[in-house]
């Protein structure tokens, strides 16, 4: 089957850079204290307590903690947390927007701990490498996933509002069509949780052109960003994917406390990065078993 997974906040922040005291899980705090105290004991220093973590600089432990988050997510969702990958979407290194990279068995075996630096925009995985997860850590942006069930090929890409404006959702489908010969009627799509229509800019965004411009609404000087309708337009009108082949997770990251949200954190009274909404969750997919006709969705620990 094709398993679509969204970590929510259940396993902690799903990248190194956004791990903070405010989003540590109870398990995180216990692990951190054990890691830190082991090192302090070797240096002849006194132990710290969980209460000390709020003011303790644990920057050097974030990478280890993030790996534990991946392993815990994998254990709960049926894959090896070391086999998770993301695309950096670094157009300067990849050379063009819409570039793609396929995760082969040889590549995964060469990088057994996963999470490598892949500059391309879009990741591809096939049923020949079951258990290999492609996705992206996000807060308010949707991750758009597509699969050709007949061929056993899937593509995934992070789609911020700016990337939707650049037609990234369409490009994710074009990889299937141009590189693998998929037909629109054989493609199924999933759009992960993202910020809903109450995501507001105080002025019209400078990055908005044809891809997003029709989906930004002026409400008395507040500009509401409607990402899902823009994504659906590209999937249905530009790619020709039938609406019944598209699943949209309509959870709103702004208001749903199961998810992190940059926009919600931005309005924290104590400043950015100070609320439990600060962080990144992970959304992606992988192949499991031999039957690729079913699509199964798991959010967090199974809600």
Features:
alpha/beta, CNF1/YfiH-like putative cysteine hydrolases, six-stranded mixed β-sheet, five-stranded mixed β-sheet, 8 helices, 14 strands, about 20% strand
Question: Would you write up a description of this structure?
Answer:
The chain has 303 residues and is an alpha/beta fold. The chain has one domain (2-15, 79-299): CNF1/YfiH-like putative cysteine hydrolases, CATH 3.60.140. It contains eight helices and 14 strands. The strands form three sheets. It has a six-stranded mixed beta sheet, covered by helices on one side. Strands 2-5-13-1-14 form a five-stranded mixed beta sheet, with no helix packed on it. The protein has a three-stranded antiparallel beta sheet with strand order 9-11-10, with no helix packed on it. A hairpin with a 2-residue loop joins strand 10 (216-219) and strand 11. The longest helix is centred in the N-terminal third of the chain and has 17 residues, at 26-42. The protein is globular. The relative contact order is 0.20.
Give a brief description.
The protein has 303 residues and is of the alpha/beta class. The chain contains eight helices and 14 strands.
Percent range for helical residues? 25-40%
Poorly predicted tracts of residues: none
Distance between the termini: 19 Å
Shape: globular
Query: Approximately how much beta-strand content do the residues carry?
Result: 15-25%
Rg, Cα atoms, Å: 20 Å
Number of helical elements: 8
CATH topology, by name, is: CNF1/YfiH-like putative cysteine hydrolases
Q: What does the average pLDDT come to?
A: 95
> H/E order of the elements?
EHHEHEHEEEEHHEEEEHEHEE
Q: What is the number of independent domains? A: 1
């Amino acid at each position: 089957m094709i398993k679509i997974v969204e970590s929510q906040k259940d396993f902690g922040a799903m990248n190194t850079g956004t791990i903070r005291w405010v989003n540590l899980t109870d398990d995180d705090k216990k692990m951190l204290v054990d890691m830190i105290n082991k090192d302090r004991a070797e240096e002849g220093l006194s132990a710290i307590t969980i209460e000390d973590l709020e003011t303790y600089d644990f920057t050097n432990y974030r990478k280890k903690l993030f790996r534990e988050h991946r392993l815990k997510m994998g254990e709960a969702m049926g894959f090896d947390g070391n086999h998770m990958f993301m695309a950096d979407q670094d157009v300067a290194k990849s050379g063009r927007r819409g570039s793609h990279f396929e995760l082969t068995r040889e590549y995964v075996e060469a990088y057994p701990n996963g999470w490598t630096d892949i500059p391309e925009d879009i990741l591809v995985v096939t049923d020949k490498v079951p258990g290999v997860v492609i996705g992206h850590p996000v807060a308010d942006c949707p991750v758009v996933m597509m699969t050709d069930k007949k061929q056993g090929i899937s593509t995934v890409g992070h789609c911020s509002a700016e990337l939707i404006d650049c037609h990234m959702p369409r490009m994710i489908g074009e990889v299937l069509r141009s590189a693998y010969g998929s037909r629109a009627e054989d493609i199924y799509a999933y759009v992960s949780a993202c910020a809903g229509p109450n995501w507001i800019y105080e002025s019209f965004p400078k990055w908005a052109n044809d891809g997003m411009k029709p989906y930004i609404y002026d409400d008395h000087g507040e500009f509401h960003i409607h990402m899902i309708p823009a994504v659906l337009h590209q999937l249905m009108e530009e790619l020709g994917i039938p609406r019944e082949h598209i699943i949209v997770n309509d959870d709103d990251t702004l208001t749903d406390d199961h998810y992190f949200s940059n926009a919600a954190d931005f309005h924290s009274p104590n400043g950015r990065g100070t609320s439990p909404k600060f962080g990144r969750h992970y959304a992606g997919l992988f192949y499991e078993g031999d039957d690729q006709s079913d699509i199964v969705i798991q959010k967090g620990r199974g809600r």
